[in-house]
Amino acid sequence: MQKQFKAIAVLVVTSVLTSISYASDSLENNLLSTLKLKLNEFGDIERNGNHGQAIRAYMNKGYIDKKPTVYRADYVDYYVLKKPAYVLGHELKVIEEEYMSEYVGCCVNEGVGVVLKLTGSMQKLENFAQKNKCLVEPIDYTYYYERLGIVNAIPEKGVFVEMSCRMNDIQGF
Description:
Blueprint: H1 2-35, E1 37-39, E2 45-47, H2 51-60, E3 70-73, E4 76-80, E5 86-87, E6 90-98, E7 111-117, H3 123-131, E8 135-139, H4 141-148, E9 160-166, H5 167-171
Antiparallel strand pairs: 1-2, 3-4, 4-6, 5-6, 6-7, 7-9, 8-9
Helix pairs in contact: 1-2
């Protein structure tokens, strides 16, 4: 009886971990798909998809809150992750969504950025960024949070980068 219980427990845990991994992979693939480049009907290069939809998928699965952690700082909403997720093999810490809902001054740069804690080789990240005209830059994680006024941020050790996939990144500004 005890062996059967252990076997069932292992099966349940494996099933749960697989479904969590699948959900995270599906979210990552959906987000990355929206950041890829395509030609529109006029022959102009633009991002592939609806990043708002990809971000809502993270909301619906409980990875981020329904409302941004920091709302509308210079056209950008910032969503701090509540549980682990990965993008291109690196831990996703923040999703940035830049868009214009109303004009408040110069220079909206529509698109998405992600803050990642590096967990190994940057090769996949660099390849994706180069192919899709995204900009990858190292950031000071503590300063990043302080600048946003996020008071409950827990300092972390590690190497952090921001990958920006916005309109100006396509145009090389």
